[in-house]
């Protein structure tokens, strides 16, 4: 058969279905920190629904649970522990400058 007359065929790849990140027994609640922490980035941001592979309803419930946990101080608003670590101490200058006469 000539190449120009061949029908277009998609390549057949083996497709392994991923397991859903939230099981049927998991309860989406602000107290379930092991579940909530899976859906937060290293910076403390809520990951998108596409990244999490959640349904719309599950994403809404996760978002509400994360926000409730933040308000109740179970979860920090920002995860910036590395920001405050300094390797060298830098001398600080005062805000007053010597004025020329």
TrEMBL record:
<keyword id="KW-0687">Ribonucleoprotein</keyword>
<dbReference type="GO" id="GO:0070181">
    <property type="term" value="F:small ribosomal subunit rRNA binding"/>
</dbReference>
<comment type="subunit">
    <text>Part of the 30S ribosomal subunit.</text>
</comment>
<feature type="compositionally biased region" description="Basic residues">
    <location>
        <begin position="1"/>
        <end position="19"/>
    </location>
</feature>
<keyword id="KW-0934">Plastid</keyword>
<keyword id="KW-0689">Ribosomal protein</keyword>
<dbReference type="GO" id="GO:0003735">
    <property type="term" value="F:structural constituent of ribosome"/>
</dbReference>
<dbReference type="InterPro" id="IPR036870">
    <property type="entry name" value="Ribosomal_bS18_sf"/>
</dbReference>
<dbReference type="GO" id="GO:0009507">
    <property type="term" value="C:chloroplast"/>
</dbReference>
<dbReference type="GO" id="GO:0006412">
    <property type="term" value="P:translation"/>
</dbReference>
<keyword id="KW-0694">RNA-binding</keyword>
<dbReference type="InterPro" id="IPR018275">
    <property type="entry name" value="Ribosomal_bS18_CS"/>
</dbReference>
<keyword id="KW-0699">rRNA-binding</keyword>
<dbReference type="GO" id="GO:0005763">
    <property type="term" value="C:mitochondrial small ribosomal subunit"/>
</dbReference>
<protein>
    <recommendedName>
        <fullName>Small ribosomal subunit protein bS18c</fullName>
    </recommendedName>
</protein>
<dbReference type="InterPro" id="IPR001648">
    <property type="entry name" value="Ribosomal_bS18"/>
</dbReference>
<feature type="region of interest" description="Disordered">
    <location>
        <begin position="1"/>
        <end position="23"/>
    </location>
</feature>
<dbReference type="Pfam" id="PF01084">
    <property type="entry name" value="Ribosomal_S18"/>
</dbReference>
<keyword id="KW-0150">Chloroplast</keyword>
<comment type="similarity">
    <text>Belongs to the bacterial ribosomal protein bS18 family.</text>
</comment>
């Amino acid at each position: 058969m000539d190449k120009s007359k061949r029908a277009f065929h998609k390549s057949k790849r083996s497709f392994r279905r991923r397991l859903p990140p939230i099981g049927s027994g998991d309860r989406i609640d602000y107290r379930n920190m092991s579940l909530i922490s899976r859906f937060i980035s290293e910076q403390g941001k809520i990951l998108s629904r596409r990244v999490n592979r959640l349904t719309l309803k599950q994403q809404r419930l996760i978002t509400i649970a994360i926000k409730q946990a933040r308000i109740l101080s179970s979860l920090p608003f920002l995860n910036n522990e590395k920001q405050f670590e300094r390797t060298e101490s830098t001398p600080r200058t005062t805000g007053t400058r010597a004025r020329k006469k």
